[in-house]
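To whoever is covering the structure queue this week,

Two jobs came back overnight. Logging them here so there's a record in the thread.

Job A:
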Amino acid sequence: MHTTILGYPRIGAHRELKFATEDYWAGRADADALTETGADLRAEVWTGLRDAGLDAIPSNTFSFYDQMLDMSVLLDAVPDRYRHLMGFDRYFAMARGVQDVPPLEMTKWFDTNYHYIVPELGPDTRFRLAYGAAAKPLAEYREAKALGIDTRPVLVGPLTYLLLAKPAVEGFRPLDLLDGLVDVYAEVLERLAGSGAQWVQLDEPVLAADRSEEEIDALARAYARLGQLTSRPHLMVATYFGTVGADALRVLARSRVEAVGLDFVAGPGNVDVLASVGGLPRKTLVAGVVDGRNVWRTDSGRALSTCASVLGLVDQLVVGTSCSLMHVPIDLDAETALDPGVRGRLAFARQKVAEVVALGRALREDVPVPQSAPLPEAGTDRAVRERLGSIGDTRRGDRAVRFAAQREALGLPDLATTTIGSFPQTPEIRGVRADRRAGRITGDAYVRAMKDEIARVIALQEELGLDVLVHGEPERNDMVQYFAEQLDGYAATEHGWVQSYGSRYVRPPILHSDVARPRPMTVEWATYAQSLTSRPVKGMLTGPVTMLAWSFVRDDQPLAETARQVALALRDEIADLEAAGIRVIQVDEPALRELLPLREADRPAYLDWAIGAFRLATSGVGDATQIHTHMCYSEFGEIIGAIGALDADVTSVEAARSHMELVGDLRAAGYGNGIGPGVYDIHSPRVPAAEEIEENLRRALRAVEPGRLWVNPDCGLKTRAYPETEASLRNMVAAARRVRADLAG
């Protein structure tokens, strides 16, 4: 028996990667300094995993931004618009854009909150191994070997890379590039073998989703070609995030790959699928029995039972994680302030490695897993459960009646302008919040500082000419954590950072017990902002699905039940906002698509409870109160119907990077409410010209009438700086006014 993991956090225990990357972007550090930080972080991970007793250690899981972007660079799949740049400048331009060149699209990595950079492939794409012998997986393998550590390089698998790519021209199928792509993979494998690599891991998470017969044939062709190479390392094909299809597993079982990784946490059905294809004779199974996605301690008895149930179906069994540990924080030992009853139920990345090692030893030596303290139980709130049982119909009134009432109450023009919610969080604002946490300033001083910032943001928006304002959210550390810290049933970490994209890290709160709202959470800030202006100010809340998706959620009850508890707390908050005179309330659900099950058959049940939770939260308001929602960076095609079923009065969505494609899709699906397609990309530092925004608006108007079209950025402005924010919003308002004037004429 042996032990391994599929990947490890790359951000550093103290977020070293974030600070080094942002220093490079800001010109405070050069490329050599950034490169040195990366090398230090890799060495720290490899030596730490070795010292923890792990038998097989992965490499090439580090990235300065994203592993899919790394593959595009490795394969020289670089669109022409970036080729005039070199090195890090090209790499980060593909991820973030530069003033004259927009970035590649970005979207969610399956059903996680991690975002990847979408490859852009066309009929002219010609794959080749960029940088040759100095290519990243080769260089990092040799780097680890110089430390005395023989690693297993990890690559995104060829099928996953192509199926997650976007066609550069309409009608093109990236899968048609398979043969040329596999030739480059073959070259990489041969070079790795020449460097001494014994194993290579190829990640194929797309196999946990529904796959067509053509795609299964492509899988067979790719691994037949790679398997027959005369000079190559052993191959491990890893799937995760769900149950692999029987057809796909049958292909892998018949191929020459030496090992297959299966996720038995998100995909308990993999036990049955493995049995149905006759097991993996003469192959190794990497059994993902330690959860790489959530923070709960492993039930060692259940994990060992799963291993025992498949032992007879494989030649050798390796204990591993269900997926990469990049989705969980690094070290629980850093969380000294957590309630002991909650802490006793948790394991972060470092602790999960120890669990893998202990399980492997228990199987190898037939010894018991060292006993931990008994798992504490989750807390229950009888009042919350009784209230949920008494709530009936959650449908809102007639759409036309609501539209008329809101138009009269708000008095907004066609193509109303607004923002998504947050404004830039300056070092000064973050410093005030830090001072308050540390007790260096009083509560009154903190409130004064926040109100001063709110007043500044309101005045700025009035000067810019926006129609519906926001208070800017200076008091909020994160759109989920802020609410979690005020709700019973949640716990927050101090150092539990997880990468969302690039240098954007979040600290997902831990939802451990029944959820309740002890007091109003946002009313004071919203009403203060509204008192400063005659224009409508939006109340800003995070929706129940996103509160779950961006938290580590208890696994002892169905997600649907937990979602209803969060929705009930939000329903009470919305009622208080409405009673305080707030007439526009935004309930963000950027994660609605994110939690969509990978298998078609599982989606109706999920959408039923997700839509139900949103309606439970938002259905208590009057017709004249306008409910907004917001979604970002997801493939929306599979939830078009659900967006309409939420029945928000206005839905704002990411659309800038995808050139307004979603607007037409919504119209085709019969969506009839207000729509705010993001007219510029806030994840890039570039300032869009008014003409560029105007073009996006005119494109959107081909699919939606002016009275239903809103004008807004594609996401919140928290991570941007004020100079670029003001310039972009000024151009946005100018573009909206020009188009509005043309329509009036």
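Job B:
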Amino acid sequence: MSIRNSSVLGVLFSCSILIAGCDSSSQTRAGASSTGGAGGAGNSGGASFAGGGSSPNALTTVVGPAAVDLLFMVDNSSSMADKQTILAAAVPGLLSRLVQPNCVDSSGKVLGTSQLGAATPCPQGTAEFKPVNNIHIGIVTSSLGDHGGYSICTPGTATSYVDDSGQPVVQPSDENDKGHLIGTLGRAASIQADTAITQTVNLKLDPLGFLAWGDPALQADQSLTSGELGSAQKAFTDMVAAVAERGCGFEAQLESWFRFLIDPVPPVLPLDAPDATNLTHRSGVDDALLAQRAAFLRPNSVLTIVMFTDENDCSIRDTDLGWVPTKPSTSIPASSPACATNPNDKCCCSCSATPPAGCMACSGTTTTATNDGPYQMNIRCWQEKRRFGYEFLYPKSRYVVGLTHAELCPDQTFGDMDCDCGLAHNIGASCSPGSRRMPNPLYSNIVGQDSTGKNVLSQTMVMPRADNSNIFLVGIVGVPWQDVGATDASGNLTYIPVTDPAWVQASATTVPTNPGPAGIWSMIYGDDNANITPGDVHMVESLVPRAGLPGPTAAAGADAIVGHEFNSALEELQYACIYTLPTSRPCQCSLGSSNYAYCKYSHPNECCDLSFAADGNGGPGGDFDKPVCQGNTQVAARAFPGLREIAVLSDYAKSRDAVAAGNSIVTSICPKDLTGDPSSPGYGFNPTMQAIIDRLKDRLPSN
């Protein structure tokens, strides 16, 4: 979490709130995706075609090249600019590979790259799959606003900054992108005007915010031209640049893609302020988002969702008390004693609530939760159930249900939309499915229900997916590449597919660089609510230096993965990994200058402040000793453990509701190599793009 609004500083937490109820909205690892079978999704109902175009007629089956839909969720908080640049350089290679597959011999050995438009695309061997000439590429960001708090992440609300001319600074529109495609936002207007992008019949920047590459009517032996490929690559680079890094520090990495692709009735954002009982409510339907979904998402496509983020997920609820963590002026009451040992215990609840029968009541103060001081807004989403007795985030099961269930219940009270309340019942939480049962847009031609109550249909009417075989979830997240990858004979990084036995046991055939005795998942998976700690200490979330790793005063590079631990001032967590920046970045701000605070807001840099006067709880000051800094120059970038994203990737890969297991791809946002040839297989995020191709090609038509 990267909260940049300086109004959080110096605020005394004195306002207490009532948190009612003790139900857990977390999920345990065991049976995490055992959420019961879903009923079939009906395609009947009064239909109104939304999103432009003509209403389609009869359903058709797919012939010819496959359609591929690529949705990137790109974190746009203040630490992401350098990583976005590396992503923008890697993805064009992925696009090129989809339309120019490798030429291989009968044993699968790569002989070269197929040629666009050639009469014989592969002079030797055959293409590994038919060129993909029908691609949609879109980007959403991690910023979904304030969740009804109307304080932080609220566009237009005043900050405590003044700019260089002395004028008050307000929070930018980027604080809430509403889950809309980046191409529809004002800061992306330059993409359409880019003269380096030539739009043709086969290459279009759709007005609804995505890159449409290829013509669905193309035959298998037709392909895009090299000029069109170059324009497509430039368009994606422009889209990433438009993401920027001025977004909300409460990063909703999971909810952003769920909202855009799956939520049948995405509420209007921003949410209304809490009602008289301090509760927020989902209201209205975002018809603009449904129009974008209807145009972007094809019911039969090979869908790939890519999460690109350097922090843990903070997908705050749109209902109930979800707004509470976003209010710096509101202190959150402490948790009951049971939470310290087992956050999923029925007796774990807020001290402001009446404990269930037979449970120990709170004693002493109930107004100060552990590590919830005035300088600790950046950790409001960390260990919520343990610290507060209440989890303000959506349950992780919400996202596995969304990827696997044909029917959803958007009014379900537990929060994961499972009409059978499977996980809620497993952990003893109350759950009512609500009255509405709606088709999941991933498994239906109906992409949602608009604000008038009418069904919105996909612009492409074909037989929809019957199961999750063509739905892939990719994580480029905070995890050491050493835990999830290995190096080949040339020293290039390759990521290990989750179908490999190495993920669940010590493997004698595929061994990650940093192996664990019980497999990769046990090394990187953590769930505080279930007291599951990752086997790799680098993946343990901690405010203080972790035992077993070099301390803050250790030499630079003392640890190969994080350099060394640092003094966080109890304001942020220790790192999962770091990597050396290709170009170091000196702090642009002068300490003591009148515009110092605003300068840091405008030019984020980890190394402008090297010491702290007091820690997050008002304790003694000290030096940060961050391993990413050399003096006031930032020489490396960091990532925090992405435990919620990894949990969803794990649960989806192993879900009993998934017909196709193993459709997750786990990679690191900390690259192994940024000094070699950018076109080499191991450079930057090229290994991630290769991992995506390796999984997708099994679902693409072969020659």
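Note for Job B: Residues 5-21, 23-65 have pLDDT under 50 and may be disordered.

Please reply-all if you pick these up so we don't duplicate work.
Q.
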